[in-house]
Here is the input.
Amino acid sequence: MNSERLLSTLRSVGSFILSRYGLQFRRRDRLEAWQARRLAHFMTRVMPQARRFSPPPGQTLDSLPLMDKATLMGDFAAYNTRDLSLEQVLPLAVQAEQSRDFSPTLGDITVGLSSGTSGAQGVFLVSSVERQRWAGILLARTLPRALLPRLLCPWLAPLRIAFFLRANSRLYTTLASRRIDFAFHDLTLGLAPSFERLNQQDPDVLVAPATVLRGLAQAALAGQLRIRPRHILSVAEVLESADAEAVFAAFGRQPQQIYQASEGFLGYTCEAGTLHLNESHLHIEPQWLDAAQTRFQPIITDFSRRTQMIVRYRLNDILRVAAAPCPCGRAERAIAAVEGRADEILWLPSLDGRQLRALYPDVLRRGLLMLGPALEEYEIRQQGLTWHINLRTREPYSDVCQRLAEALHRLCAEHDLSPPGLSFGHWLAPPPQAKRRRIQMLQQPEGLPCMY
Ligand SMILES: [Zn+2]
Here is the structure.
């Protein structure tokens, strides 16, 4: 093993040990004190290396302006410490996307495109040192104890991981090593071409978006797949209860969630099955959406980064906080659900017609669950005061449309909302690499103020 390779392994192992055994905060004040120390170092030593923060536009974190993907892309070079411009990095990312060869780097920098389905595409930079730390943190936070010996003991077989994503990246192949047999599956090819490789590898750990896990579960139940994964992780999409049930029926394991975006490794499921925010490595401010403080959009500051500056960066996601503390005792904030993206909130007039009120995607999804298996697939797009609903049904189509309309009217009545006009169509399967988006606000009704 040459010295660079040894150093990178040590970095991953170091991050692994620090995250797994060092950063286990049980008290919120200790966690916040750790964050404050890391933030102080980050704001004085790291941030000023990026043009945007030199000199710093504020002294304390909350005096800094908010940013989002549009801000980042609008002044790209100013937000990284290497002064890399979009023109320098974009060709590499686009070429990787087209050739499906994700190995080229720019020096030690990996360039990734975000899989945003709406709005502008994001470009993200990660250095090799950050990649190695990320690999260590990810494994420390997600790997169950029973699989640890496979990672650490040289006389056991390496840990086998199968990973399904829209695009591979050096970020993920960093996980491959002598102790990890890592197989990446490209979703643009569809699922069926993966079956043979999957059966051959027989992975211990299966990582995939929720819809893909469900597809693999169906294939296993149909006898096309013989794998017995011991640990199953859902990434990149909202994990619906029907997905989790299908996975459990096929593999006898509850899927756990990783909340990971191009912007960072944001959360993980603990051994009690609760999703926690990764606050040992990121500072996360809640921007509350409602007066009762049950839902928020996260504003993240990643004080572990050294290349691209993610500082008070507002994500488009809606998180619902857990009603009770998690029995595992971790101080990191517990999340009941990642409900979806901000443009998945649908808006309808209140019964008195004075304002628009939010109908949250998880409320809508749960309202439709009562239709049971009769409703196989659906998508809802709001345009003004009309909902366009495409569906695929197991029972006669017009019966299900009728029941769906009744369920929606009931749901609106429960929430004091005027029901939308409904127009029904047939659901068509999206291409295999597309992200599932069941609910989407295309155009808000005009002329009324929004009340969350
Ligand atoms: Zn927990």
Notes: The mean pLDDT is 87. The pocket of zinc ion is lined by residues 270, 272, 274, 276, 326, 328, 330 (CB under 6 Å). Residues 3-22 form the longest helix (20 residues).
